[in-house]
Amino acid sequence: MKKKTIKMSLSVLAVAVLSACSSQSEPGAVSKGIEIWPTIQSEVAKDPHIERQVAALLSKMTLEQKVAQMIQPEIRDITVEDMRRYGFGSYLNGGGAFPGNNKHASVKDWVDLAEAMYQASVDDSLDGINIPTMWGTDAVHGHNNVIGATLFPHNIGLGAANNPELIEQIAQVTAKEVMATGIDWVFAPTVATVRDDRWGRTYEGYSEDPEIVKAYAAAIVHGLQGHADEDFLGYDRVISTVKHFLGDGGTVKGDDQGNNIDAEQALFDIHAQGYVGGLTAGAQSVMASFNSWQGEKIHGHRYLLTDVLKNTMGFDGFVVGDWNGHGQIPGCQNDNCPQAVNAGLDVYMVPTDAWKPLLENTIAQVKAGVIPMARIDDAVSRILRVKFRAGLFDKPSPAHRPHANNTQLIGHEAHRDIARQAVRESLVLLKNNQQLLPLAPNQRILIAGDAANNIGKQSGGWTITWQGTNNQNSDFPGGQSIFDGLANQIKQAGGEVELSENGEFDTKPDVAIVVFGEEPYAEGHGDRETLIYQHGNKRDLALLKSLRAQGIPVVSVFISGRPMWINPELNASDAFVAAWLPGSQGEAVADVLLRNGKGEIQYDFSGRLSFSWPVHPSKPVNRGDKDYAPLLPYGFGLSYGEPSVLSNTLPEQVDTALNTSDVYEIFNGKTQQPWQMRLFSGQQNLAVSASSMALDGLSFRTIDKAIQEDAFRVDWQGPTAGVQFVSGNGFREDLARYQASAGVLSMTIKRGNAVADKTFIGMHCESDGDKPGSCRSDVDITAELQGLTAQQWQTLTIDLQCFARQGVAFDQMVMPFELSASGNMSLSFSDISIKPTGDTHASVSCQE
Question: Which residues contact 138 (CB under 8 A, 6 or more apart)?
Answer without folding.
Answer: 94, 95, 144, 145, 186, 187, 188, 462
